[in-house]
Here is the input.
Amino acid sequence: MAEDNTTEMRTDGGLVPPDDETPTWRERKERTQGLSRLTYEYFERSRREDQDLREESSYVERDVLAFPVWPHELIRNLSIVAFFVGMIFFLSATLPPHIGAAANPSSTPDIILPDWYLYWSFGLLKLGPLNPDLSILGGQKLFADRTYGVLANVVIVGFIAIVPFVNKGSARRPVEQPFWAAVGISGVTFAITISALSIKNLTPMDPHVLFDLTFLLPFVTACISYAVLKTMREGYMYDLNRRYYRLRPPK
Amino acid sequence: MSIERKDDMDHGAWLEEKDLTVIETGFLTALVWLDKRLRLVDYLELLETLYYRVNLQMPKSHTEQYNLDNKFWYWYPLYSLGFFSTVAYLVAAVSGALLGFYYSPATAGDPSTAYNSITFIMQDLNLGFFLRSLHRWSAQVMTAAVFLHMLRVYFTGAYKEPREVNWLVGIILLSLTMVFGYTGYLLPWDQLAYWAGQIGVEMSLSIPLLGEWVAQLMFGGFSLGQATLQRMYILHVFLLPFVVTAVIGIHLALVWMQGIAEPH
Here is the structure.
């Protein structure tokens, strides 16, 4: 086994402990006595039965390259998560939310806001100026502005949903695919700018400038990140290719 | 002729040739009987493997495997975001269940029973102020973690080939998380809640074709009132918890089955 390691790449990437460290079922069985030993003897037979069935069948086990949730991921996560749960308690002890005036249908407040995570959606409702007037309808709009905003939400979510079916291949890192990384960066920027647009009465900026920036900034950040990643790409790819593509050949 | 399947591994004959005591025979017979039905061997094998695994050295981590330590260790905290949002969800569930003991969704009263129960929780209930704070913060943190989790998955290309389905399930979960947050935001029935509800009604009314039906279903009418609050409450404490917990279960099961996508 030790000689094998030096001569050829192990396709399991070392995830499976070497054979000489793992006790075989026979060894485990031999360590026990009494009823538990009997149990093992029976289970050995039972396993052999399964093994025979497996060998008869035409099912082929695939080799999936990923690392296991247990124990690698969960052990690491548990330690990090313990810290973050502490953070939740700390935040809620130090920054408790207060409650505003009771609901009053007869007085509209100056500031109407959903929670922060809905700002992007709220902002998409304010895209009225982009709703085209169609000359074919005599300058009428095809949809009401509100309908247009709701449809914009559907379009955004739909776009996110089809990403795995559009961007295929084995590339994983942003440097491997500068274009898709740029799309992602512009998406993040757009989420931020459209959120700023949704609270334009609170944003200290001329609303027209803000509206233009909402669409300009994502484009700018996309260009910048594309250029940066494209530049970084070669240096990264050299190191990467050596080891990584030997295990996972590009399509 | 018997239709009983011929047993290649004749456990009965094996038992007889072993020359066992009564206790041993009884034990083995029961074991064989149970194992035939429940396939205990699989579960015992799992337990055993776990037992032996914790006593072994940890297998090589991904970064060791690909010699990426120098570049990519700082991605790791981002890999825990999914698990973290699950834990935040559990914290919100427990604190929410406790809050549920004291909250009642009614608009009657001065100014309203719902609002009064929130002020009761905040002012009179022991630890109530902290409890509400904890519920709110864990919800906020969960939402933030879920968004960041999606970004992590996007930028590390983890949604690719075998994991497309889980990406779609994730989008459903993200949407449901926001609905969860929105319905919870409306429950205190203060000014912010009321007018956020108003926006919600207008949004659903502007959906083409289905608008009025959706507004009726979700908000119980075109103007806000008892029906709205009641529906938001039922969505928040009854419907969504079951649905979201089930979808989280599916999401995690798929991750478990497919493994963590390698951080490259």
Remarks:
- Chain A touches chain B through 96 residues (CB under 8 Å).
- Confidence is low (pLDDT under 50) at residues 1-7 of chain A.
- Chain A has three domains: 2-56, 65-94, 114-247.
